[in-house]
Structures are given as C-alpha cells and as structure tokens.
Specification:
By secondary structure, the protein is an alpha/beta fold. The chain has a domain of about 45 residues. The chain is built from 5 helices and 5 strands. Strands 3-2-1-4-5 form a 5-stranded parallel sheet, covered by helices on one side. Strand 2, helix 2 and strand 3 form a beta-alpha-beta unit. The longest helix is centred in the N-terminal third of the chain and has 13 residues. The model has no long low-confidence stretch (mean pLDDT about 90).
C-alpha cells in the first residue's frame, strides 16, 4: 500500500475525497496531513479518520525538521489539495518527482490554436 501525505489549507473536501477513495480502492493510504491553518476543517478530518497531522506556520514549514517528519512516512506521493502556500524548495528537493497539485477549479480546454 502506498503512503500518501496531503498538504491542505481549507475545509478539506478534496482531502476527504482522497481518503474515502483509497479506503475503497486499497492501493494507497493517507498517512499524514500537513495543514497551515489551525482553524481549517482539515485537522477535524484527520482526527475523524485517525490520521496523523501537523499544523505548520511559515517558519516551521521551512525548517529541516519537517523533511525528517515527512521522510518517516516514506511517501509514494505528496498531494497538495488546496494548499495555499508555495512549497519550500528544500521539500521539493527532498521529494523529487513525488509532489503533485490538485486544482479544484475547472480549467479552460486548450484547442491547440
């Protein structure tokens, strides 16, 4: 089973959808959630599903400790689900080809013109 880490800032609709999908699918499991808004809905979702979570501010998101905390979970994928901050370069370098961003809005189709 692939461990996933989710970074989220808001109510957590996409986070909940990912958790629910993999509860049925069984190929992956959300192992950790990182949130940057203490009052967001995401920590409540983490508690409901008994998933480890951390609340990080801008300073602690840039500290090397978070990289070690994330590495402890050996994530197959880090998913940004409405995370509103730029991911620090140190995290990107520590997890190359592992981070994807989920965009909740409809995007215009490219017609190739």
């Amino acid at each position: 089973m692939h461990p996933l880490i989710i970074f989220a800032s808001g109510a957590g609709r996409n986070t909940r959808a990912i958790i629910e999908h993999f509860k049925i699918n069984g190929q992956a499991k959300v192992a950790m959630i990182i949130c940057n808004v203490a009052g967001a809905g995401v920590p409540d979702i983490a508690r409901k599903y008994e998933i480890s979570y951390l609340i990080k501010d801008r300073k602690t998101l840039r500290e090397t400790l978070i990289i070690e905390q994330l590495k402890d979970f050996n994530p197959s994928l880090i998913v940004l689900t409405g995370f509103l901050w730029k991911i620090p370069q140190s995290i990107i370098e520590a997890f190359p080809d592992t981070i994807i961003n989920s965009h909740p809005a409809l995007l215009p189709a490219y017609g190739g013109r």
